[in-house]
Amino acid sequence: MSLITIKNLTKIYSSEGINTNALNGINLNIEEGEFVAIMGPSGSGKSTLLQILGCLERITTGQYFFEDKELNTYTDDELANIRNRKMGFVFQSFNLLPRLTVLENVKLPLIYTEEMKESEKLSRAKKLISLVGLEERANYKSTKLSGGQKQRVAIARALINEPKVIFADEPTGSLDSKSGETVLKFLQDLNDTGKTIILVTHESEVAESAKRIIHIKDGLIDKDVLVSNRRIISTQGFNK
Questions:
Q1: What's the pLDDT at 8?
Q2: Is residue 133 part of a domain?
Q3: Number of structural domains the chain divides into
Q4: Is the residue at 181 inside a domain?
Q5: Residues 6+ apart with CB under 8 A from 148
Q6: pTM of the entire structure?
Q7: d(CA 153, CA 145)
Q8: Which helix or strand (DSSP H or E) is residue 207 part of?
Q9: Residue 122's domain is classified under what CATH number?
């Protein structure tokens, strides 16, 4: 089943009368359950594409379909609802709130889910914290965590609403190599359970953890290849 389809998509930024073409007519289809890495040099348009797919930016021209629904005409509130209920996000800078505990950060996206009882929110958050191996740090403030631990909290938070797709923007960019491998292994494991993963990176070694690699150059898809020799990552888990 097609989860995402974009047709003739362009994105133009305007500033002080100067137009900058970030995306120049992209066509793309992503099936449910894929693990896609989007690569490209700085300024190629890869991050802009991710922001559009994640409903963080609007397109200039073209069409964007998510679960066969065209999002072009959706209001900001409607797009925000889709982001909250259907999409999870993992960023290079983690985007955790420093004054909140691990448990509070993971539970945060459920704040507007009025139909869910507080006890259910807590239960779901605790299960995800355990899943990423941080149950002993559930009551730590995020400032007390290492970079790898923060990113695992961010992944747990991204999963809290049981999204259809996880968007990961340079998720290993701020991590040491060991922590980065652990995060990539976890994304692979999530994909193996059927979760759709779309990852942006400029590192070929990171991209090779995906099953499909899309290269962006000058706002266009330059290459789109299935990975026959996917890099299988082996770690000791999430207990450290």
A1: 97
A2: yes
A3: 1
A4: yes
A5: 175, 176, 178, 179, 180, 182, 183
A6: 0.91
A7: 10
A8: helix 204-207
A9: 3.40.50.300
51 vs 227: CA distance, rounded Å = 24
Q: Which domain holds residue 144?
A: 32-55+83-226
Cα–Cα distance measured from residue 185 to residue 234, given in angstroms and rounded to the nearest whole number: 7
Residues 207, 87: Cα–Cα separation, whole Å = 21
- The DSSP code for 57 is S
Helix (H, G, I), strand (E, B) or coil at 111: coil
Q: How far is CA 228 from CA 150, 185, 190, 212, in A?
A: 32, 18, 19, 9
How many CA atoms does the CB half-sphere of 79 hold within 13 Å? Answer: 18
* pLDDT computed for residue 236 by the predictor: 52
In a domain, 24, yes or no: no
At residue 209 the predicted structure's pLDDT band, cuts being 50, 70 and 90, is very high
* pLDDT of 167 over the 90 cut: yes
